[in-house]
Write a structure and sequence with these properties.
Keywords: Signal. With about 110 residues, this protein is an alpha+beta fold. The protein is built from 2 helices and 6 strands, in the order H-E-E-E-H-E-E-E. Strand 1 and strand 2 form a beta hairpin. It is elongated and about 65 Å long.
Length: about 110
């Protein structure tokens, strides 16, 4: 019984760790389409709300040592602008080296 319990615990921990590593957006973005873009060696998946103006940019490649937060914010800003075709609302870009969130302002022509 002890061996089965240990095996179950190991499998459970591996499952939880694997789930944490998945690239998935927040709930409001799950039905939106993701666009992938590469900028200076970093790959981003940009998720947009279906009926909204919020976006998430996920850096999906592994780099060691991690790039600076400022570099990632600049690249995520560019990735969002390129994939959505909209400007990022001033002061709305927030995030870290993995996930950046923003509000976009699209002009209708």
């Amino acid at each position: 019984m002890g061996q089965i319990h240990r095996i179950f615990c190991v499998l459970f921990v591996l499952t939880v760790i694997s789930a944490c590593a998945m690239d998935s957006p927040a709930l409001g973005y799950t039905r939106g389409d993701a666009k992938t873009i590469e900028l200076s060696g970093n790959t981003y998946k940009v998720y947009s709300e279906i009926n909204g103006n919020r976006v998430e940019a996920h850096r999906v490649n592994a780099v060691f040592p991690p790039p600076s937060r400022l570099l990632i914010l600049q690249q995520a800003h560019e990735a969002i602008v390129r994939t959505t075709g909209c400007d990022v609302k001033k002061g709305s870009l927030v995030g870290d080296q993995a996930i950046v969130k923003a509000i976009v302002q699209c002009t209708t022509a």
